[in-house]
Amino acid sequence: MGFMLVSGPRARTRRRRLLFLAGSVVLVCAITFAGVGYQLFYREHQDPLVPADAIVVLGGEHDGREDYGLRLAAAGYADTVVISNPYINDDYNRGGRALMERVCNAGTPEIEVICFDPDPSTTRGEAMFVQRLAAERGWKSVIVISWRYHLVRARFIFGQCFDGDVIMRSVPRDYGRSPIFWSYQFAYQYGGLAKAVILGCD
Asked: Which parts of the chain sit beneath pLDDT 50?
């Protein structure tokens, strides 16, 4: 004897409730993703500029960050500029090699420029390198330059790896307002924060 699936008003009502519940959960998750991402990664989280022992330019796009670090040094905020170049063997951006050659040789009698290839080629590798330099040179504070959307994660990682004070500064550039761009950055930075929590700085 077989069984026949009965589709009546109760079944349809149950399906509608399940669909409504699923849709509500997705909506809440999307709102949370966007709202928290906006607060952490879209809004500005840079610190007021104060003199420090060194200026650290994190790797990324050649979007003016290297020259911004050099300008801050010329303005008297530090006499050492540490520039990360994790793409030393790559044509990461058109003209990148020529730019790095220029900024890495931009030292003066008053300003020392140190370029390095972090190991690993991540923010964690950059923070570990800066900590080693700080231990050798007695640095107590650094100004760290990166993308606006990277500042929260970079601050967290430097807080794990660097013993001194960290002043975060965002690259002065146009970040645009594309929803696709910011959705990607929110997801990437969430993942990077989770990875930083797991890895620590050992």
From this structure: 1, 92
Question: Between 1.20.140, 1.10.10, 3.30.70, 3.40.50, what CATH number should domain 54-172 receive?
Answer: 3.40.50
Question: How far apart are the C-alpha atoms of 182 and 191, rounded to whole Å?
Answer: 14
Model-level pTM greater than 0.85?
Answer: no
- Tell me the DSSP string of the chain: --------HHHHHHHHHHHHHHHHHHHHHHHHHHHHHIIIIIS--PPPP---SEEEE-SS--SSHHHHHHHHHHTTS-SEEEEE-TTTTS--STTHHHHHHHHHT---SS-EEEEE--SSSSHHHHHHHHHHHHHHHT--EEEEEE-GGGHHHHHHHHHHH-SSEEEEEE--S-----HHHHHHHHHHHHHHHHHHHHHTT-
